[in-house]
């Protein structure tokens, strides 16, 4: 369990420290398409966390992963409106 949760922590680290700042910077610099792509990547990443626990096994972070997917998808849609 600890190994799988560690992998999820690494995934969330990428979202928080790389993808979200990239999206913010892209929008600030007038490149919303790149920001949208970064947020779409953020929406996909929690799926990798769920996959860490194997087929047929529920991730203890399933609800949080779904919330992150939803928030990132909504953010990408808002950024898309800037195009």
TrEMBL record:
Gene3D superfamilies: Invertase/pectin methylesterase inhibitor family protein
Classification via InterPro entries: Invertase/methylesterase_inhib (IPR035513)
Region of interest: Disordered: 36-57
Name the record gives this protein: Pectinesterase inhibitor domain-containing protein
Organism field: Linum tenue
């Amino acid at each position: 369990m600890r190994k799988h949760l560690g992998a999820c922590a690494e995934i969330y680290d990428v979202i928080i420290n790389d993808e979200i700042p990239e999206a913010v910077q892209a929008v600030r610099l007038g490149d919303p398409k790149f920001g949208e792509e970064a947020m779409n990547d953020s929406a996909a990443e929690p799926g990798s966390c769920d996959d860490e626990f194997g087929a047929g096994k529920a991730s203890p972070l399933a609800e949080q992963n779904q919330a992150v997917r939803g928030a990132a998808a909504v953010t990408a849609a808002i950024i898309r409106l800037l195009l």
